[in-house]
Amino acid sequence: MDGEDGQPTAPRAPGNRAVVLGVLAATVAVLLVQAVSGTSARLVLLLVFLPALLAGLGTVAQTVAASVWVTAVVVAHSVLFPPGDLPARLGTLLGVVAAEAAVIGLCARRVRRERQLSRMRQVAVALQRQLLRPLPVTTPDVRLDGLYRPLEQDAMVGGDLYDVAETPHGTRVLVGDVQGKGLLAIGTGFAVLSAFREAAFREPRLTAVADALEAAVERHNAYAEQSGEQERFVTATVLCVRAPDSNDGGTDDEGTDDGGRATEVRAVNCGHLSPYLLRPDGRVEPVPLDAGLPLGLAALAATGEPRPERRFTLPGDGVLVLLTDGITEAQDASGAFYPVERGLADLAAVPADALPEALDRRARRWSGGSSRDDVTVLALRPAPEPPAR
């Protein structure tokens, strides 16, 4: 069973009516077998296991009620059909009471742990919503669908990151991958996302946004070094998308109109995987971007110049697919990597909003259902043209 966040939740306790009917049916069945068989064995003691079974699924109140009922049935049976002398009867009764008390204690412990896990999951959901914006997102420029699946699914957050911001300069999109996997990469990812959310609005030029992300990673690495933690780098691609009719807003990010809703995209790549342009006829074109250095490694550049910006056109019927290496590095039993271009071509007829999950399913099938890294897939397409007034 999945919760609202799409994550598995604990099974619900059975209803009181189902518990009452189940306990009564089991009691009648055991007593009938005892009466019909004529055996001297005290089959009624089998009822002691009923509360134990219920303790694994039911509430504490249900387990207590079942335990009291079973104890009463055993006592009544011992009075009506004495098993032997008084010490034997007392020993049986004490054994039943002790067993049921232990069962109630185990049930209470289980319920307490489930509540703790539920609170932890609520915290994780809140953290994920603060770190990663829920998808899909629609702005005047783009419609962005996507899938985010961390390697450690119970944590709900990991080393991949993405964000989208509707700004006066156009819609800015970020996708990235922090060095390392899972929870250890969260701190660096949070630093990058925080810097992006500020710089995306503040900086007219996309290269300046990338510079702000670089500075954020450098500051975080300095803090990590002081704390004795590992320094990390981040691969990322930063995009700016503007619809042809977007207002210039006094910046250098102007749209182009080559007919229809074809949209200009500007991109700065920081060592990340190049995106793919998927056309309706099944053609898949890798978008050639300058590799650039990952965020946090700009000091290695000899020139010290900003990372280059590249422009390209997103056709009105095209889909721009952005990935992390959780997809590209999926391997089959022979060690072969998942053929992303062929996989996207096979999915050309799939609607853009279903494309990320479909691609992830195929990559997981290729790797035998296992994952070695966090997975992020974003499908970006031009926003629908607003109706004419």
Structural notes for this entry:
With 389 residues, the protein is of the alpha+beta class. The chain has two domains: 16-125, no CATH class; 132-382, Phosphatase 2c, domain 1. The protein contains nine helices and eleven strands. The strands form two sheets. It has a six-stranded antiparallel β-sheet with strand order 1-2-11-10-7-8. Strands 3-4-5-6-9 form a five-stranded antiparallel β-sheet, with helices on one face.
Low-confidence stretches: 1-8, 246-260
Largest sheet: 6 strands, antiparallel
Assembly state: single chain
Strand fraction band? 15-25%
End-to-end gap: 46 Å
Shape: elongated
Domain PPM-type phosphatase: 142-382
InterPro entries: Bact_Sigma-Reg, PPM-type-like_dom_sf, PPM-type_phosphatase-like_dom
GO molecular function: phosphatase activity
Transmembrane segments: 18-36, 43-70, 90-111
Can you give keywords for this protein?
9 helices, disordered N terminus, elongated, 11 strands, alpha+beta, six-stranded antiparallel sheet, Phosphatase 2c, domain 1, 40% helix, 389 residues
Secondary structure layout plus pairing:
Elements: H1 16-37, H2 49-55, H3 60-80, H4 86-131, E1 137-138, E2 142-149, E3 160-167, E4 170-178, H5 186-202, H6 206-226, E5 234-242, E6 263-270, E7 276-278, E8 284-286, E9 309-314, E10 319-323, H7 325-328, H8 340-346, H9 355-366, E11 375-382
Antiparallel strand pairs: 1-2, 2-11, 3-4, 4-5, 5-6, 6-9, 7-8, 7-10, 10-11
Helix pairs in contact: 1-3, 2-3, 2-4, 3-4, 5-6
InterPro entries: Bact_Sigma-Reg, PPM-type-like_dom_sf, PPM-type_phosphatase-like_dom
Keywords: Hydrolase, Membrane, Transmembrane, Transmembrane helix
Protein name: Serine/threonine-protein phosphatase
